[in-house]
């Protein structure tokens, strides 16, 4: 059997078909992005070959000068992009260019908005770059040969339902992509146009992008003949961006490079580029994205830095250099100390890696710190995208706990708004002179927390309280005991200790009132047996008749729900009910006969539950009791 005989026509997977349809029919507003995607794939292929050569030096031998070559044929409307990188074998071609290599495609299709501009930005974000060739071409041919193998592979498709794949000979190492350009995109055969697009999008990839020197029509015949000698020129800077000095680089360069590095098409919020020599010898270029990736909570999310060692590409997504809560950071780390033959397994054991992790983590935190101080508006954008993840920080990063905490933002009674824009430092600055603690309250929703009866005494005294309603907040606070020597206090737990903020007069009054109300408290306890742990006189309330408090060491509602959702058993615990002895409803309660007493007490209890954002166990009964009471009002 000859190798050529093995021709197959295969169908694209459903999602790929949809994607192709979309490329062809709707994403023509930024056609030039295809060039960045194909050049970026070629550059990855060169990186992969350099890496493979570390283990097998023969791979590079036949053609050691790595480059990307772009050629055009105006008459035939052809554009070719050729690299001499790692190449692909038949299985890889089918896998990478026919089926979905990543889970991203389906998600990409779900996210589409119909708005061309936004949608074309999504292409890169979901790692479906190769297919962007079909924005400008109605036929694409890929000829490729994997380094170290003899036979090549031919792939062809018109971007509709299927593709052809067959084995072929006489292919150079690497990949050549030929685009049959659509009429309306014939301008991509224009050398000057191509040069400007490549410079715009691919100036600082480390590989030279080469084109044939342009000949000028005005030149005489002799001159023309001379220029038949093929002369290539490099049209990009071809120097890995991070190896350049900062002064050589413009913001635009950094922004473009980010797009090569990360599938995210939006601009980064901030970056930090550093060369360090000394005990550790490395260059890092770290970016803070402006948008959260779609899979930030997926354990399989691509995270980590692109690792280079002495400028040789080693791997993508090297996770070891950043803690989990900074998993959104993108960038490059180029180390001069790590051994070139390092593997993912070895990375975990290497002592240098830990030192690098701590300096890189610090760099990211410092960058955020600076942004918070100097560019509060950008920081707010950052917080909206990544605040939830940053809240994992104090628990995970013991060494930087204080700094991670200072980067947190909350909402508070200072504004009462839902926007989280209050830092712990700002809170401390506004603390009353005699205030010792940082007060906070957690509930299931912002409106529940902002309208909680627990806040009444704080409002009266003008003390600020942090309002927390994110799912992660209670868990976060279980890891935060103090900040700048100020302890945190959950105002819905245990007995309220206002310390020096409490009036001695109030304290004494509470003691006498408690004695006076002993009988009432006993009656309430009887009625709510099995529902409350304790009943006592409050010093929290000024307007509401009653509220529910969690025991000092009991789990709050958020944590209970979180644990339950994770399938864990949560120990039973009952709240403490606090009553406001001067409230008219409580005064009235004292005088009620037993039937009314029971109903009213239950209603007070259930309303206190509602105020905490929790539904009464039997909401039907609650409604009945309420209606009974309302009917009595009507008949009065
Ligand atoms: P991504 O680059 O994000 O993985 P693409 O759609 O751009 O997604 O490419 C899909 C895959 O096809 C790549 O991951 C790579 O394995 C393979 N590929 C594409 N272009 C080349 C090339 N020039 N050389 C070798 N492999 C390539
Ligand atoms: Mg790609």
How would you explain this protein's 3D organization?
The chain has 636 residues and is α+β, with helices and mostly antiparallel strands. Helix content is 39%, strand content 18%. It has 25 helices and 22 strands. A nine-stranded mixed sheet has the order 1-6-5-4-7-3-2-8-9. A five-stranded mixed sheet has the order 10-11-14-12-13, with helices on both faces. Helix 2 (33-53) crosses helix 8, helix 12 (351-374) packs across helix 13 (376-390) and helix 24 crosses helix 25. The model has no long low-confidence stretch (mean pLDDT 89). The site of adenosine-5'-diphosphate has 17 residues, from helix 2 and helix 4.
What is the fold's blueprint, element by element?
Layout: E1 8-11, H1 14-25, H2 33-53, H3 58-61, E2 68-73, E3 78-83, H4 90-98, H5 104-111, H6 116-125, H7 133-136, E4 137-145, E5 152-157, E6 162-168, E7 174-181, H8 191-202, E8 209-212, H9 221-226, E9 232-234, H10 251-261, E10 270-276, E11 282-288, E12 305-309, E13 312-318, E14 330-335, H11 344-349, H12 351-374, H13 376-390, H14 393-396, H15 401-406, E15 411-412, H16 424-430, E16 437-442, H17 446-450, H18 456-461, E17 466-468, H19 473-477, E18 482-483, E19 486-490, H20 504-516, H21 518-527, E20 534-537, E21 546-549, H22 557-565, E22 576-579, H23 584-591, H24 594-611, H25 619-635
Parallel strand pairs: 2-8, 12-14, 16-17, 16-19, 20-22
Antiparallel strand pairs: 1-6, 2-3, 3-7, 4-5, 4-7, 5-6, 8-9, 10-11, 11-14, 12-13, 15-17, 18-19, 21-22
The structure holds adenosine-5'-diphosphate and magnesium ion.
